[in-house]
Amino acid sequence: MIMNYPNGKKFIKQEQKINLSIYSKDRGIYSNRGMTLEEDLNETNEYYREKNIAVIHKKPTPIQIVHVDYPKRSAAVIKEAYFKLASTTDYNGVYKGRYIDFEAKETKNSTSFPLKNFHEHQISHMEQVLKHGGICFVIIRFSIYDEIYLLEAKHLLSYWDRMKNGGRKSITKEEIKQNGYFIPLGYQPRIDYIKIIDNFIG
């Protein structure tokens, strides 16, 4: 199926490499199971819902279907579609009566996170969420090390402003470690970001 952005540019999905699941007794945690950050977060959110901890969902992306084939009467195959509008962030929901909104990003870069991974409309959305008292952040995975960090949106916005004012076009890993929170990988939940949120909402 052909997917296109609102500006007509084609959407190209990158293939994911799959690795086997390995349990390390020495480390006491499950190592990289070949799952994407999105899959790990979806599994984590399902755990939160089942345990009545929080209600967080991945936002659906609305599409406009423009070409459908009907190879047989009982089946339809979508051949071409467009994203109807630019997406904001990946996830939202509620925890302890507070609105939560966050983006999830991965990078193969080992020393920094490129700000080009964000779009202007996503930054504007995060600013609005913070303005109205919501909890907003980004979860970043350094895939080379399989390390995951939570960075509050207020810090991301300051780095974005720095770039806009002629500064560096990335956030160094050291800056993320200094201002963010390391999330150790677990089993259930896989990425326990709610425990991190408790650190900064009191």
Automatic annotation (TrEMBL):
GO terms for molecular function: hydrolase activity. Binds 1 Mg(2+) ion per subunit. Gene3D superfamilies: 3.40.1350.10. The record marks K105 as: Transition state stabilizer. Signal peptide: none annotated. InterPro entries: Resolv_RecU, Restrct_endonuc-II-like, tRNA_endonuc-like_dom_sf. It is found in: Cytoplasm. Its EC number is 3.1.21.10. Mg(2+) binds at T88, D90, E103, Q122. Endonuclease that resolves Holliday junction intermediates in genetic recombination. Cleaves mobile four-strand junctions by introducing symmetrical nicks in paired strands. Promotes annealing of linear ssDNA with homologous dsDNA. Required for DNA repair, homologous recombination and chromosome segregation. This is Holliday junction resolvase RecU. The gene is recU.
